[in-house]
Amino acid sequence: MKPRSATVRIAAGQGFWGDWLEAPYRQVTGGPVDYLMMDYLAEVTMSILQKQKSRDPSLGYAKDFIPLMERILPIVAERRIKITANAGGVNPRGCAQAVAEVARRLRLSGKLRIGVVTGDDLLGRLDGLLARGHELRNLDTNRRLADVRDRVVSANAYLGAWPVVDALRRGADVVVTGRVTDTGLTLAPMIHAFGWRPDAWDLLAAGTVAGHTIECGAQCSGGNCLVDWERIPDLANVGYPIVEAAPDGTFEITKHPGTGGRISVAGVTEQLVYEMGNPGEYITPDCIADFTTIRLEQHGKDRVRVSGVRGRVGADATHGPLARASAPLDQLPEVQLRIGVRSPDRAAVDRFTREIAPLILNGPPSVTGFAGGRPKPEEIVAYWPALLDKGMVEPCVEVVDV
């Protein structure tokens, strides 16, 4: 086994499908990094990719990932930078095949190994799982998936970091995955570099927090930042974030010198609370990270040190006691009521929006939400969160030489 690294530098290159394509190139050329992490997937993205694949079986992955790889593969091969990306969407093998073809055109045969992580796509297994008693009840409404089975477009389990770790341990230089968690793409390089155990909960939680901090790209380095945003320097040249991690689970968030944006405690904090539910239970397939234990410290210009992260065993974590009753209504600082309607009849929804719009002036005070005009009916793609016995999901890892 190779010696454990003193530190490892993991650069964020994409925060969503459609992010700035110049960012990955700048990350691998702007200074030393060990890994380039690229996150492409959201729930709605999976549905879009599944629709594409249903029309053409060769599709179903982030297509702009391929020309991007053509641009940076020679650089990462020369500098020995490894890549983890969930750009595979619902067709990781097709995506990996396209990357391999690019690598051969670039005469990188024999110099590159590609790992492919599959096993997350459950669409073809749904009927069998339901028949075996896996109800896949909606975590928000408790409805059974069988109630809407005929409308399911895609079904994917969130895989964690360990299949990516497996691919890295088998020598993969580029790891292409399906629905691996955003955080797992950063946690996996840390596990691989430092040899962390599967039950090292505090360390895994620290790596999870690191991944959550950089998963949205420039959102933690000055982009979409509320605090003092008018004074963020050179935002047009924003530098994407880099995790500089140590084996003890501490890490620092920084960026390449000479780039715009800002790495600050305030900006990192904003990213940490993004998409967060109970701060004491940030649940992933790898561990539960307790966000209330995170300690942030400005450690120099454009450098934030993160420490103190604690984690624990995730088994049965979602079956805890119900939340305590809310405070009386007259003690709440504010209440916002949002109204949404759905119907198989588009005209009926349109009639509803026509009736509700006059409330701006003739209804109760503080009506809001009409800045963009009267809402227009749109086809909806709903998200159905559910739990499945972990034993029913079997990740598959393949590693091939180009």
List the helices and strands and how they pair.
Elements: E1 8-14, H1 22-29, E2 35-38, H2 43-55, H3 65-79, E3 82-85, H4 92-105, E4 113-118, H5 126-131, H6 162-169, E5 174-177, H7 184-194, H8 201-214, E6 242-245, E7 251-254, H9 265-272, E8 282-283, E9 288-290, E10 295-298, E11 304-307, E12 310-312, H10 346-356, H11 359-362, E13 396-401
Parallel strand pairs: 1-2, 2-3, 3-5, 4-5
Antiparallel strand pairs: 1-6, 4-13, 6-7, 7-11, 8-9, 9-12, 10-11
Helix pairs in contact: 1-3, 3-4, 6-7, 7-8
Structure characterization notes:
- The chain is α/β, with parallel strands linked by helices.
- 28% of the residues lie in helices and 14% in strands.
- It contains 11 helices and 13 strands.
- The strands form 2 sheets. A 10-stranded mixed β-sheet has the order 10-11-7-6-1-2-3-5-4-13, with helices on both faces. Strands 8-9-12 form a 3-stranded antiparallel β-sheet, with helices on one face.
- Strand 6 and strand 7 form a beta hairpin.
- Helix 1 packs parallel to helix 3, helix 3 packs across helix 4 and helix 7 packs across helix 8.
- The two termini are 24 Å apart.
- About 3% of the residues have low confidence.
